[in-house]
Write a structure and sequence with these properties.
Number of helices: 6
Shape: globular
CATH topology: Endonuclease, Chain A
Order of helices and strands: HHEEEHHEHH
Radius of gyration: 16 Å
Largest sheet: 4 strands, mixed
């Protein structure tokens, strides 16, 4: 099976994202909303009263500096794709910051190690 065929099978709503949502909902209750349409980049979670936007970045799709491994096939395609994703990420973060949002980027590998602890701390410190 080719890399692109495998990637086509990846859908949102994976186990990591569902765990992320459960943990944030448990910690922050109804204050957190998910897939905040209307904001640049559609953050994975936002807490409006604290103006915190959270992105859960998949290590493969966003090129995690710790654990990204480029596919062996079609290298040029994937390098260009990753470059576009990173440029879009920088643009979105800048737009949100200009609008007064605190932007938290949580890498998938970090989330798997520590969960949402850092995010919850940041939200609570901005809300106090």
């Amino acid at each position: 099976m080719t890399t692109s065929a495998i990637m086509r099978k990846c859908r949102s709503g994976n186990a990591t994202e569902l765990r992320f949502r459960r943990q944030l909902r448990r910690a922050l209750g109804p204050d957190v909303r998910f897939e905040a349409k209307g904001l640049p980049g559609t953050p994975d979670a936002v807490v409006d009263r604290a103006k915190v936007a959270v992105f859960l970045h998949g290590c493969f799709w966003h090129g995690c500096p710790k654990c990204y491994k480029a596919p062996r096939r079609n290298r040029r395609f994937w390098a260009a794709k990753l470059s576009r994703n990173r440029a879009r990420d920088r643009r979105v973060v800048a737009q949100l910051r200009r609008a007064g949002w605190l932007v938290v980027i949580l890498w998938e590998c970090d989330f798997n190690e520590v969960g949402t602890t850092v995010v919850v701390r940041m939200v609570r410190s901005r809300s106090a």
